[in-house]
Design goal:
Keywords: Signal, Transport
Protein name: ABC transporter substrate-binding protein
Family: Belongs to the bacterial solute-binding protein 1 family.
Structural class: alpha+beta
Pfam family, one: SBP_bac_8
Helix content: 40-55%
Organism: Streptacidiphilus jeojiensis
Largest sheet: 5 strands, antiparallel
Length: about 425
């Protein structure tokens, strides 16, 4: 998740932007006209756009590269696609920012967008002429800073409840929809060799990412971590460990580790994302299903965090900005969003394209359902989110290991987040 590691790859997903904060850059350098153009002579050829992202793994690298190539051709420019490993991307972006050499198109993990936008280095997309109609409001929020949209995601992702169909069927259990059902079902599905439920509760970004659906769906507020709704959500999660329905080791498990436990039959249900589909589909004899994450009470809306990346247009020159905006707009057509969704398990940002994907790919339908009520991690707290996420993860670790009660852990977290 982004935060999170590379969603769509074996590495971590959602928190990419959290750990990077300002990292996650994609540099689609809508290259300069030519050296001759810079001195006033006639241009030697079409603009060359250099695209830099952190999609070093498949299928995202090829999927994005194919779309960039197609969009470049349709808009009369050229593209050189460069993928930089996530840990190295942030230093590169910061260096380019300080030297005023940012690329013409820049990809950012959505929690990182505000960090770059606040420097004035990005062009508002409406000013650039990018059509934002038909996009989920939650996704526009994730790409916004101070009321202006600076980044648009061709697709997003989040997390949902995965369950072993054979195990639940044998126990006569349907996928739980409420916290009470989750607690009861997890206990019933737990055996000496298998836990009923698993999730990541690590302190490397994915713990907060996986906890937020419980936190937010119960009315939790990132500005008041120690409020009653927040405490109740941590009581739920820590209670699953205390009852033996979830392993104490979740405090060290990344999402990939949780997925391994699920595939090995050591967890009947888990929280995870669509980037795990390739690995799950390759597991022999595994029959799994996907459902929305359980909510506090029947009928309540599940509120998951939005993961994924936004593409931006850095401030360069008028010609480059116009060219970059055309490529960005092309990347976000319904056809290209559907292609990316099917290749990499993303949910299209356009509501019409998302509806098509939900119909064509049933496993993605729960994720599509969740997007309409999903929340941006930075919408309310802005650039303070990384510190808040760290405080939440510390609280989780304390409560799940029994070092502190949920109330005490979150009181400490609120103090730490305020100082941060």
């Amino acid at each position: 998740m982004n935060a999170a590691r590379n969603i769509g790859s074996p590495s971590r997903s959602p928190r990419r932007g959290l750990a990077l904060t300002m990292a996650a850059g994609v540099a689609l350098t809508a290259g300069a006209c030519s050296s001759g153009a810079a001195t006033g002579s006639a241009p030697a050829g079409p603009l060359t756009l250099t695209a830099t992202d952190y999609y070093t793994s498949e299928p995202m690298h090829s999927a994005v590269g194919s779309i960039l190539t197609s969009c470049a051709a349709s808009t009369g420019v050229k593209v050189t696609h460069v993928s930089v490993a996530n840990p190295q991307l942030m230093p590169k972006v910061l260096q380019q920012l300080s030297s005023h050499t940012l690329p013409d198109l820049l990809m950012l993990d959505n929690p990182s967008l505000q960090q770059i936008a606040q420097t004035g280095a990005l062009v508002p997309l409406d000013t650039a002429g990018v059509d934002l109609s038909g996009v989920y409001p939650s996704i526009l929020s994730a790409g916004s800073y101070q009321g202006k949209v600076y980044g648009l995601a061709p697709g997003v992702n989040s997390i949902a409840l995965f369950y072993n169909k054979d195990v639940l069927s044998a126990a006569g259990i349907k996928p739980p929809t409420t916290w009470a059902e989750l607690t009861a079902d997890a206990a019933k599905l737990t055996t000496p060799k298998r836990y009923g439920f698993a999730m990541s509760a690590d302190n490397d970004g994915e713990g907060a990412w996986q906890y937020l659906p419980f936190f937010w769906s119960n009315g939790g507020d990132l500005q008041h971590l120690d409020a009653a709704p927040s405490v109740q959500s941590l009581q739920l999660v820590s209670g699953l460990v205390k009852s033996g329905s979830m392993s104490k080791s979740v405090v060290t498990w990344a999402q990939s580790d949780v997925n391994d436990q699920f595939i090995a039959g050591k967890a009947a249900m888990m929280i995870n994302g669509p980037w795990q589909f390739p690995t799950l589909d390759a597991a022999k004899g595994l029959h799994y299903g996907v459902a929305p994450i359980p909510v506090p009470t029947a009928g309540a809306a599940v509120k998951v965090p939005l993961g994924g990346e936004v593409w931006t247009v850095p401030v360069t020159s008028s010609a480059k900005e116009k060219a970059a905006a055309k490529v960005l707009a092309c990347m976000n057509t319904g056809a290209n969003q559907v292609a990316l969704a099917k290749a990499a398990g993303y949910v299209p940002s356009l509501q019409s394209a998302a509806a098509q994907v939900a119909k064509d790919t049933p496993a993605l339908a729960p994720f599509v359902t969740e997007v309409s009520t999903a929340l941006s991690r930075t919408a309310v707290v802005g650039t303070k989110y990384p510190a808040i996420a760290t405080a939440l993860e510390t609280a989780m670790q304390s409560a799940l290991t029994g070092a502190a009660s949920p109330q005490a852990a979150l009181t400490t977290a609120q103090s730490a987040a305020t100082k941060g």
